[in-house]
Amino acid sequence: MPTATKRPREKGISIYRPFIFGSIAKHINPSNRPSTINADHTHQWTLYLKPCPPHPDLSYFIKKVQFKLHETYPNNLRTVEAPPFEVTETGWGEFEVQIKIYFVPEANEKPQTIWHHLKLHPYGPDAERQRETKAPVVSECYEEVVFNEPVEAFYELLTTSGGGGRGKGSKGSKQMSIGGKGDRVAELPFEGLYSQKEEGRELDRLGEAIKTVEVMVKAERKKLEEKEKILADLRSET
Fold it and tell me: Whole-model pTM?
C-alpha cells in the first residue's frame, strides 16, 4: 500500500495480519417488535470486522473502521473508533457495504477498502430449513492485510509488545513467525472455522470433487465414442 510520507522502511519484508469481516442478520418477530423499529423493517443486522481466532485484538494496528451504509439510512457513514468494530441496524433489503479500514499513525499507510454484501435471506441447500426456523443468517469472509516493507516504527509495533514474533523474509513474501504464548501472530490456528485443519479438509473435498468430475468426463467421453461409432456404422450402410 502507498504511504503518505517517506520514512525508513524494512526492506525485503512483508508482514500479514488476518481478520474476519461480515454480517449476521436476524428476523424480527412481528409479535415482539419494539415500538422504536420501523414497521417496514423485517430484520435486525450487525456488520462487523473482528479478529481471527485465537487472536484477541486488532486495535494495535487498526485505528478505526468506517462502514458506509445504503444512502437511505440517516448518517449512513458510520465510524467506529474502538473494538468491537461493528454497526447494528434494522432494515428490509440487502445492499453492498463499503468498509474502510484506517490504520494507526505508526503504520504510515493509506486506508484499505473492502466490500461486503449484507445478506438477510438464506441461500443454498439448507435455505429452506433456515427460513422455517428463522435461524440467523451469517455471511462472513476471512481476509488478510499485507504490509509490504513496513516503516520501522510500524514494524516494531507489529513484532513487539505482543504484536507477534520478529522475522525477515524475501521481498514479496508473507512474513510471520511464531512467538510465545499470548503473542499476536498471523498463523492460522490448528482447529476452528478458519484453521489449518479446516483448510486441509477443504483441500480434501476439492480433491474428491476433481476425481468425481474426471470420472464423469470419462463416462461422457465413452458415451460420445459409442454414439459416433453407431453413426459411422449407419453411414456405411447407406
Answer: 0.67
